[in-house]
Amino acid sequence: MYLGINLAIEPHSIALVSSNQTLSEITEANSHDFSENLIHRIEELILKANTNYEDINGIGITTGPGNYTSLRIGTTLAKTLGQTLQKPIYPISSLKAIAHENTLANGIYFSILSARKTDYNCAMFSYNNKKLSQLTPDFIWEEPTITNKLLKIKEPVYLCGAGFEALIPKLNKNKNILISTKKISGTSIAQIAIDMAQNKENHPLHTINPKYSHQPNIYPNHK
């Protein structure tokens, strides 16, 4: 049984999955206290699944990009649980999680998340024979670059993500762009963690940290 945690972007979601079957899931949008009460939500999740912490074999966690505070809370709690239960932690890019959530058919997937101002977090993936492969590292493009490049695409591409609603009217001009906006679920994070476990991936705790597209701005105190 694997625990999946997504606090990177809303809706926040956690789930317990065993053998590709979702045992229980909790998803909440516009919840200001979900991350702060995460441990209580996980206890509720375990109760709903009629199981216990000892049955958890591994924990998947979205490590970013995403909300600064939520990412810190999510990764810290996942690492604490992993250390306490002596179970492996699987860090998952939010962009990969989005692509995984939106796979509809074989093809190319372009994941996008709003970052700051006119910047967007992006990554490209291919999906073939039920296998998702990342084609590029996570990167940042500004709005003009995204629209200019995607409008020139001559082959079908699935565009998926969140926070890019303002771009949709422009991108709809290219019929090769197929837009899908399913959000990240805890179930999807747990499923990716299961795949990573089967591939025998090993991620030491000290290497698992939030990945921000931009570092938080820290302003000096004004007296």
Model description:
- By secondary structure, this protein is of the alpha/beta class.
- Helices cover 28% and strands 30% of the residues.
- The chain contains six helices and eleven strands.
- Strands 6, 7, 8, 9, 10 and 11 form a six-stranded mixed sheet that branches.
- A hairpin with a 5-residue loop joins strand 1 and strand 2 (12-18).
- The chain is globular.
- The N and C termini lie far apart (52 Å).
- Residues 217-223 have low confidence and may be disordered.
Offer a few descriptive terms:
single chain, 223 residues, alpha/beta, six-stranded mixed sheet, five-stranded mixed sheet, 6 helices, 11 strands, 30% strand
Secondary structure topology:
Elements: E1 2-6, E2 12-18, E3 21-28, H1 38-48, E4 58-64, H2 68-85, E5 89-93, H3 94-102, E6 107-114, E7 119-128, E8 131-134, E9 139-142, H4 143-150, E10 157-162, H5 168-171, E11 177-180, H6 186-198
Parallel strand pairs: 1-4, 4-5, 6-10, 10-11
Antiparallel strand pairs: 1-2, 2-3, 6-7, 7-8, 7-9
